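Deliverable D2.4 — example input (structure tokens):
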């Protein structure tokens, strides 16, 4: 804030409010100054705030005012000058409304101030992510044990959601991706009525949300009851081997002080050398925590540098539209000595 010459910052993203205060409700902002932190919320959450963040200074609005009016009251009362507003937490319309409600202040949009803090996790956060990973893995194990040849992509996704919740999750980290056969070549395919027995293989991209934290994994599987494998096995194994080798090289490159571009290049260069360069069409990975996608961005055009305590995905892929998509995704913790792979679902060829 000092570097940006700000007297205060209005934190508007729900996950950032939770990160700074411990409050897990919504429809609330935090005003941060060098001397004070004020949670601006409403009467619905009074008791919850007392339970989750006792002692935190609050400004509780009544039902006759909205959140923006309450923010305007606090900013005006404190006679603040330059006030930053999280641009990612408000719409343009809401920003203009805030400017009208804070006539004495100079409001400016800001980006990434809290996210830079969130990029490095403490021990409590790492433990929460580990729990989200274990829950995702338990849900996936249950899915594998109960898959039927007649199941459709949508039915499998619905089953996985239920299994994750039964394992202790609060829900999926995101809408799961299930791609049967050549639909696996759509990196973010929507769910369809295609059945498992229509192809020998499928791709599953899923994650769990446990409390405020998330996990994210991807695996390729053989379809139970699908067509005979020999028609595709050798070609799929070749793709899979290249992707697995690329991921292994990228994981080996992960360590504090390394540019994410170097990590991305370790995987992308291997895939290109194998002749699939034009078929790896997305970044290598991303940070994960309070959001499924957060800092650092692990891609060729990112200037992020790895630091101990970061948690990120490594997920190289090859996508051949007429045949298959192969993506292998795991969650990693950057340690002082390199990378610790947090996920434990086997990823060798024989595990499919």
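Example output (designed residues):
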């Amino acid at each position: 804030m000092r570097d940006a010459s700000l007297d205060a910052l209005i934190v508007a993203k729900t996950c950032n409010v939770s990160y700074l205060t411990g409050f897990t409700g919504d429809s609330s902002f935090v005003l941060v100054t060098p001397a004070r932190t004020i949670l601006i919320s409403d009467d619905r959450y009074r008791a919850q705030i007392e339970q989750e963040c006792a002692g935190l200074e609050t400004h509780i609005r009544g039902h006759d005012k909205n959140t923006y009016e309450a923010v305007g009251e606090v900013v005006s009362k404190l006679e603040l000058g330059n006030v930053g507003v999280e641009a990612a937490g408000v719409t343009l319309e809401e920003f203009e409304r805030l400017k009208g409600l804070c006539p004495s202040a100079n409001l400016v949009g800001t980006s990434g101030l809290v996210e830079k803090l969130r990029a490095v996790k403490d021990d409590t956060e790492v433990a929460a992510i580990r729990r989200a990973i274990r829950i995702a893995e338990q849900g996936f194990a249950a899915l594998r044990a109960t898959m039927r040849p007649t199941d459709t992509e949508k039915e499998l996704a619905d089953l996985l959601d239920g299994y994750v919740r039964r394992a202790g999750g609060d829900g999926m980290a995101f809408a799961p991706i299930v791609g049967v056969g050549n639909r696996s070549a759509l990196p973010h395919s929507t769910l369809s009525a295609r059945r498992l027995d229509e192809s020998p293989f499928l791709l599953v991209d899923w994650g769990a949300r446990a409390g405020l934290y998330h996990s994210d994994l991807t695996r390729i599987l053989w379809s139970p009851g699908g067509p005979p494998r020999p028609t595709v096995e050798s070609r799929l194994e070749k793709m899979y081997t290249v992707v697995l080798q690329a991921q292994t090289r990228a994981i080996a490159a992960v360590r504090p002080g390394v540019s994410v571009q170097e990590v991305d290049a370790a995987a992308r260069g291997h895939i290109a050398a194998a002749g699939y360069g034009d078929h790896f069409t997305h970044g290598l990975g991303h940070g994960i925590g309070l959001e499924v996608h957060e800092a650092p961005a692990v891609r060729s055009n990112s200037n992020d540098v790895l630091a101990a305590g970061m948690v990120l995905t490594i997920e190289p892929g090859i996508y051949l539209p007429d045949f298959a998509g192969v993506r292998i995704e795991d969650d990693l913790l950057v340690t002082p000595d390199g990378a610790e792979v947090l996920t434990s679902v086997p990823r060798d060829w024989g595990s499919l």
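DSSP finds nine helices and 19 strands in the chain.
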